[in-house]
Amino acid sequence: MSGYGRLDADVEQLLNRDDWPLRWQRKLGLAPRVGGMGLKRRALFFALFAWLPLGVWAFLRGHALPDGSVEPLLFHFGVNMRCLFAIPLLVLAEGMALTSTVRIATLFVRNRIVQAHQHGDFMNLMHEAARRRDASLPWIAVGTLSLVWAMADPANADAHGMSWAVEEGRLGFGGWWFAYVARPMYIALLVGWLWRILLAFRFFLGISRLELSLVPTHPDGVAGLGFLEYYPRAYALVGLSISSVIASGWAHDVVYHAQDVHALVKFVAALVVAWLLILLLPLMVFSPQLMSAKRLGKEEYGRIVGEHGRLVRERWINNTPVPDPELLDAPGIGPVADANSMYAAVTAMRAFPLDKAGLLSVVLPVMLPMIVVFALQIPLKDLLLKLLTALA
Predict the structure, then answer these.
(1) Are residues 225 and 307 in the same domain?
(2) Alpha carbon of 331 to those of 163, 200, 297, 339, 345: distances in Å?
(3) Domain identity same for 121 and 19
(4) pTM of the entire structure?
(5) Cα separation, 276 vs 286, whole angstroms
(6) Calpha distance 38→172 (Å, rounded)
(7) What is the pLDDT of residue 244?
(8) 243 and 296 belong to one structural domain
């Protein structure tokens, strides 16, 4: 196996190790002890564990269906969406994130972006990232923070969403289960994903400080870093989960409390911008190297194109012999059009390793639940027309 092949195998072995929560879930039998992540099994378990106790209680107490006295559980979209949809999505997202992370890390090696003399530094970054991911203390902190957050004000954290759980002015069992089990579970999973994004930021920051072998004329428009588009796509289910919880609360207000959807536009915009900043921050660390590569590329390829054009003019227009015709005859450069196309590729290079399609992969999962909310008051045809007009 070549040096690159061995490094590639080492990267995959490191990234395919289990983090601390998954190790415990394997011990508890929620995930297979050997091989696989048990994503579907775990997603179903956590969904039922979060919702089934409060759902059974609500049915037994007559709080699940309309009875004229309280807003029933099944009418509270936020509670059901959080337990039965958002929580499973955050579990299923682990598979997408692992696949994308392995692909990105190995492509840094396979595509020779990380040069051979820095393989050791690259592996040190990999080991550091794996050590932080596998450590128990950060995940214990995530769980503690989530529980404290949920316990701060369980009854009023979601006033409309908890009305179904109130009996004689106090929370019943279903309300307590939601406040101290279901909500903390969702918050813990969500904060865990924010921790993973922070780990990605630290890892990419370390890579960006290496002497990367960037190619300004690369057809991907980002000097060979086009494969980083896999990173935001890995978090599509996370964005959908966050948006679905927020949108479900808004949908409840729109349907049952006469909320005007037009008043939500600024909050939707704020959510999209905040998620973009959080998710794309790790990719921004490559912008300085990309800008530097573009600046140097314009100078270097501009000099080649200028010299090439001068020699062509002297030979074919002025009909004078040129002292050094090697540049004209170089098969790697070819005719003037090819030389100019190389320079054009450099000038078209982007300073951020994500194109419009990549940005859409971040925005679309967040917008889908919001479109459903707005469609409750605005005809879907008009709504889609407005969105297409805004994107055009």
Answers:
(1) no
(2) 76, 42, 20, 11, 19
(3) yes
(4) 0.85
(5) 16
(6) 34
(7) 94
(8) no
Question: CB-based contacts of 179: which residues, under 8 Å, 6+ apart?
Answer: 150, 151, 154, 155, 157, 162, 171
Read off the tokens for 123.
Answer: 């592996």
pLDDT tens-digit profile of 149-201? 777 765 544 555 677 887 777 788 988 899 889 989 999 999 999 999 999 99
Check if the beta carbon of residue 63 is closer than 8 Å to that of residue 72: yes
Please tell me whether residues 196 and 342 are part of one structural domain: no
Rounded mean pLDDT of 266-274? Answer: 92
Q: Are residues 182 and 103 in the same domain?
A: yes
What is the Cα–Cα distance from 98 to 318, expressed in whole angstroms? 61
Radius of gyration of the chain (CA): 27
**Mean pLDDT value of segment 29-44:** 87
Instruction: With beta carbons less than 8 A apart as the criterion, state whether 290 and 225 touch.
Output: yes
At position 7, the amino acid (one-letter code) is L
Structural domain range at position 299: 292-347
**What stretches of the chain show up as alpha helix (H) in DSSP?**
3-15, 20-27, 39-60, 77-81, 87-110, 119-134, 136-151, 159-162, 173-177, 183-208, 230-233, 236-256, 265-284, 287-312, 326-329, 336-347, 356-374, 380-391
Beta-bridge partner residues of 167: 170
Q: What is the DSSP string of 218-232?
A: -TTSSTT-GGGGHHH
Cβ 91 vs Cβ 43: under 8 Å: yes
Based on the fold, state whether residues 306 and 262 are members of the same structural domain. Answer: no
CB 331 within 8 A of CB 345: no
Residues of 74-85 as b/e, b for ≥16 C-beta within 10 angstroms? bbbbbbbbbbeb
* Distances, alpha carbon 186 to alpha carbons 90, 245, 336, 365, in Å: 8, 10, 60, 18
Question: How many CA atoms does the CB half-sphere of 367 hold within 13 Å?
Answer: 16
Dig out the tokens for 256 from the structure.
């049952």
Judgement on whether residues 207 and 339 belong to the same structural domain of the protein: no
Amino acid of residue 228: L
Structure tokens given for 10: 């080492």
Q: Which residues of 185-212 are buried (b: 16+ CB within 10 A; e: fewer)?
A: bbbbbbbbbebbbebbbebbebbbebeb
Task: Say yes or no: 54 and 166 in one domain.
Answer: yes
| Domain total of the chain | 2
